[in-house]
Amino acid sequence: MAPNWFMYFILFWAIVMIGFMSIGGYFMFRKFLKVLPMRDGKSKLDWQNYWVERSRGMWPEDSKSFLDQLVSPVPSAFRDIARHSIAAKIAQVAVEGGASEVSRNHCIEGYIRATPKRDYRSLISFLEKEQIDYSAYTHLLNK
């Protein structure tokens, strides 16, 4: 018969594995929901790709580097995904505003609009730490 400590060791790793599988399943399910078509027939991912492609030539180098600065607090494993979704929202703001190129103000507004409400506290602290003036967009943070 196996010693007691070994049984607890097996139980501990079984719980850890179930936890990891649950977390992975959660993120896979969220990705699956992004691919499902909405009422207009396009998925959230399709719209992101549309806005990024539509604004492809509108990004000057300083706006690209500012976008990289904005996504810097995102963990490196998720940074590319975050950059794409934030760039899509910035592009939507710029294109719908009739701009000929993406400006720093479009980046700030799109960054705020792309950030979920639950992350506003960290967004504000990051903008203040980087000394980025977001005062023109505080109305977006109060929604």
What does this structure look like?
The chain is mostly helical. The protein contains seven helices and no strands. Helices cover 67% and strands 0% of the residues. It has helices at residues 4-35, 44-54, 61-70, 79-96, 104-114, 120-129, 138-141. Helix 2 (44-54) crosses helix 4.
Outline the fold blueprint.
Layout: H1 4-35, H2 44-54, H3 61-70, H4 79-96, H5 104-114, H6 120-129, H7 138-141
Offer a quick outline of the entry:
This protein has 143 residues and is mainly alpha-helical. The chain has helices spanning 4-35, 44-54, 61-70, 79-96, 104-114, 120-129, 138-141. The termini are far apart.
Helix content: 55-70%
C-alpha Rg, in Å?
Answer: 20 Å
Structural class: mainly alpha
- Spell out the helices and strands N to C: HHHHHHH
What is the terminal separation in angstroms? Answer: 62 Å
- Low-confidence segments, ≥5 residues, pLDDT <50? none
The biggest sheet amounts to: none
Global morphology: elongated
Quantity of strands, as a count: 0
What keywords describe this structure?
143 residues, membrane, mainly alpha, YneK, single chain, 7 helices, 0% strand
